[in-house]
Amino acid sequence: MTVVEPPVEIKPHAIWEDVLAIPTGAFLMSWGMYLLNAIDGVTGGLAGVSFLTSYVTGWSLGLVYFVINLPFYWLAVKRLGWGFTVKTLIAVGLISVGVGLHPHFIDVSSLQPLYAAIFAGLAVGTGMIVLFRHGASAGGFGILAQWLQQTRGWRAGYVQLALDACVLAASVALVEWRILLVSVIGGVLLNLVVAINHRPGRYFG
């Protein structure tokens, strides 16, 4: 006997849930980026490009991250809509501000690099999932990864992993090899968190 299940009623997140979730995801991401910056580490994606640009120019990481994301909003508007774009712009703005605020509240001058990279990878990955599930992203390559997942079914985590590998390869000339090694470990953990917990068709909201 075949049992026919009733269709699942998909209830999107309420506005108040987005209002709480987007700052939460942004906080987690900014915290992870701050930890990496404290050890002169690097991550993948456009955030990694921001790290490298900051190291070369001496400009603020938060400012570089915000500005370097600007061209990607065109793709977000064209392909993913204004709602996604506005949420992403808010998230990126909060991340950029958060990276600059953390040093005023906590001193991490004696941070162990491997611990920092692992914690950063888990924090950034979790923050990305929170943003993804509330119709936003961390900007840049995240916009591209989210678009490819929605339009072609490619897992966002795997897309992000491929882009991250390119950025980490470019980091060889700028980041001390021991720090680069622990950064790679953190990057792998980040992408595993996203790939395992953010699959197309598995989450509705």
TrEMBL record:
This is Uncharacterized 5xTM membrane BCR, YitT family COG1284. It comes from the Bacteria. The lineage of its organism: Bacteria, Bacillati, Actinomycetota, Actinomycetes, Micrococcales. It is found in: Cell membrane. InterPro entries: UPF0750_membrane, YitT. It is a multi-pass membrane protein. Keywords: Cell membrane, Membrane, Transmembrane, Transmembrane helix. The keyword Cell membrane applies. Its main location: membrane. GO terms for cellular component: plasma membrane. The chain crosses the membrane at residues 19-39, 45-68, 80-101, 113-132, 153-173, 179-196.
